[in-house]
Amino acid sequence: MTFQDFNFNEHLTEGVISMGFTTPTPVQEMAIPIILAGQDIIACAQTGTGKTGAYLLPVLEHIGKTGKHHTAALILAPTRELAQQIDQQVEGLAYFTGISSIAVFGGGDGSAYEQQRRGIQNNVNIIIATPGRLIAHLTSGVLKLNHLTHLILDEADRMLDMGFQDDIMKIISYLPKERQTLLFSATMPGRIRSLAKSVLINPASVSIAVSQPAVGIDQQIYRVHDAQKTPLLQMILKNGSYNSILIFCSRKEIVKSLARELKAARMNVSAFHSDLEQREREEILLSFKNKQLPVIIGTDALSRGIDVEGIDLVVNYDVPGDPEDYIHRIGRTARAETTGTAITFVNHRDEHKLKSIEQLIDKPIRLIAVPDELAGIQQVRHEPAANKRPQRRQWGNKNKPKSKP
Predict the structure, then answer these.
(1) End-to-end CA, the chain
(2) 403 within some domain
(3) Angle, alpha carbons 245-250-253 (nearest 5°)
(4) Neighbours of 311 (CB within 10 A)
(5) Which of 42, 182, 340, 367 is the most buried if burial means most Cβ atoms within 10 Å?
(6) Whether residue 149 has pLDDT greater than 90
(7) Is residue 405 domain-resident?
């Protein structure tokens, strides 16, 4: 099957071709006909499977046929980074159609809010928004959605995790009851199904490889002391042939500390965290996307907010607390049927998290031995303060003799 088989209008087809899309992914092949038919849908697919295109293409096709004189579609996303990335995809796919879009999110200065307000007043065709900022425009009376025909909830599970359920329901109270609602999520916990029942009408269901990493990911673990993490990471970065790397930490304090250590080792890295100005965050992502910056260090907010092809290594400096977050983190690599490597550092405190991850993906992750030159490192080494806790001495390399006190 090819995108030609969907019979999109010629302007949208031209955009698809210019973006280099030829063959639809499984979720696109299943979801697009349902959405074109006007039915509500609840779709569950892991990151990197093409779900953004699965809802954008049929929505753009519908807007192209029914007119472009009002706001017809609202896409809700959990983070500003994801909202911006969706907006960029709209711009690419809709380039030849004349369909307009704007990303609406918080942060930045007053000029950003004013720009969003002007776009809204000009009846932009598609609004991609984070819930909080959208409510501000709705309650101000600037935004009217009387002619809305499509509501899309993207990364719905993440929005609920971030506490946006009440905001979502408030936004929906402003929308016409006669509309098509599309819910996309990487996981399908009970809360998502309850939300779907309350906002969707007789939805079709599409599920693609729920809670499973892409087959092209080489998953590895190292059992380490906290003090071994940074020197091991430095060895991996220096000795491996990786060009585009994401490193995930559990908290922004660890992100900052690790970035300082790697920069001191003359590595080209940037820390990505909430203390940065929006402009700084955008510059980091742009440099990374353009391959000018090889390494970004961030928290789980980055795992949902970055959509860059060609990432060949993901490192979990800390094991994520939720097994689903592991799926999202490593899903940044091996996208679009490519291959990649995902390495996780596991200390003794995180062993139970590893077991939960292996239960979720239904297989053990390959264990790699800590290099000999690091086996003797114990907790006397300086490490990020947020990680400094008592350790069991046998952890780090079970094949090596215990060091004497």
Answers:
(1) 65
(2) no
(3) 95
(4) 24
(5) 182
(6) yes
(7) no
Q: For residue 217, list its beta bridge partners.
A: 340
Q: Domain total for the chain?
A: 2
The count of other CB atoms within 10 Å of the CB of residue 367 is 11
Residues 6+ apart with CB under 8 A from 145: 71, 74, 138, 174, 175, 176
Give tens-digit pLDDT for 37-51: 999 999 987 666 788
User: 3-class SS at 127?
Assistant: strand
With contact defined as beta carbons under 8 Å apart, do 49 and 132 qualify? no
Q: What is the mean pLDDT of residues 152-166?
A: 91
Residue 402 located in a structural domain: no
Q: Within this chain, do residues 283 and 148 fall inside the same structural domain, yes or no?
A: no
What pTM does this model have? 0.64
The domain of 373 spans 217-387
At 318-338, the pLDDT tens digits run: 999 878 788 878 988 876 667
Q: What are phi and psi of 344, to 5 degrees?
A: -125, 130
Given a contact cutoff of 8 angstroms between Cβ atoms, the answer to whether 45 and 128 are in contact is no
3-state secondary structure 323-353: HHHHHHHHCCCCCCCCCEEEEEEECHHHHHH
Is pLDDT at 57 greater than 80 in this prediction?
yes
Residue 181: CA atoms inside 13 Å, Cβ hemisphere, count? Answer: 19
CATH number of residue 139's parent domain? 3.40.50.300
| Dist. CA 368–CA 370, nearest whole Å | 7
State percent of the chain over pLDDT 90: 58
Whether residue 222 sits in one domain with residue 148: no
Please check whether residue 398 lies inside any domain of the structure. Answer: no
